[in-house]
Amino acid sequence: MSFQYCAYGLSIDSDIALPELAPGCGLELDVTIRAGSVPETLDQAYAVGVLYRAAPGRFLLNMPRIARYLASDGNAIVIERAAGADDADVRVFLLGSVFGALLHQRGVLPLHGSAVEAAPGAVLLLGASVSGKSTLGAEFQRRGYRVLADDICAVAPGPDGAAHLWPGYPSLHLWPDAAEKLGLALAGMTRVRPKLEKYSLPIDRFSTQSLPVSAIYGLHPVNAGGIRLTALSGEEQLKEIAWNVFQPKFTDRGPIVSAPARVSRVYRPRAPFLLEELASSLEKDFA
């Protein structure tokens, strides 16, 4: 039995159930996910880490006691799971690092961030871990905006040739302190992984349709008061985008960067996290 899904503008046929993803989008098949044998190493690797190897057209991830994954040529993923591995653990690495590598292989630009839909198009909220991307995405959902992506924002040319955001899958991942700040009860959410205190918040009114990228915000927590937005141009735009490429070491293409939209750098206090003030500042800027 196989399952059909849609994510990042790709039609996916999978041997394993992936309840995090949206149902199949009825397009020509782009990616297969199969259970099978995965090698322990890769020849001709140009990047090697403790848990991964990247070679031309191939990416190997080895998560001990969970699974080995092999992504090839941007269209195939093979998973060899460890005995007794939890289904959620297997899926979380598949939908994160492995899909990020697959997007790189396809020439899609994966950016580390969340995205919401505004009147002009997709608004990308980029930043390092704990910069507030998902929390901010959840706050915009509370304000009535449609959330398009969390963790990985897939950017590629759309039908009109302009940079488009291809939505990921319909959930946001939140730490307990973020849920508390948003007034959300953890009892109504499921854990991303059984032994990880991180929770999945469903995305309302999710759509798999791409949107032109209208604004990009790079989030930078700093040890200073106040919120400051700085509009970027030229080299600084490219720098901000390059800083936020998802796992750039997973590709040998070098950073695929462009400035498809208005790009701003956002400085916000590390503590306290002025969530409502930050969302209002961005909302005023992109509306």
**Total of domains:** 2
Q: From N to C, what is the helix and strand string?
A: EEEEEEEEEHEEHEEEEHEEEEHEH
CATH architecture of the largest domain: 3-Layer(aba) Sandwich
Helices, by number, come to: 5
Low-confidence stretches: none
Sheet with the most strands, sense and barrel status: 9 strands, mixed
Q: What is the rounded distance between the termini? A: 46 Å
Shape verdict: globular
Global Rg = 18 Å
Provide tags for this entry.
287 residues, alpha+beta, Rossmann fold, 2 domains, nine-stranded mixed sheet, five-stranded mixed β-barrel, 20 strands, globular
Q: Can you describe what's shown?
A:
It is a single chain. The protein has two domains: 3-106, no CATH class; 110-286, Rossmann fold (3-Layer(aba) Sandwich). It has five helices and 20 strands. It has helices at 87-105, 133-142, 176-181, 235-243, 275-286; strands spanning 3-7, 10-14, 22-23, 31-35, 47-48, 52-55, 58-63, 67-72, 76-81, 109-118, 121-126, 146-149, 152-157, 163-166, 171-174, 190-191, 199-202, 211-222, 228-231, 262-269. It has a nine-stranded mixed sheet, covered by helices on one side. Strands 10-11-18-14-13 form a five-stranded mixed barrel. The chain is globular and about 50 Å long.
Describe what is shown at a glance.
By secondary structure, the protein is α+β, with helices and mostly antiparallel strands. Helices cover 20% and strands 37% of the residues. The longest helix has 19 residues, at 87-105.
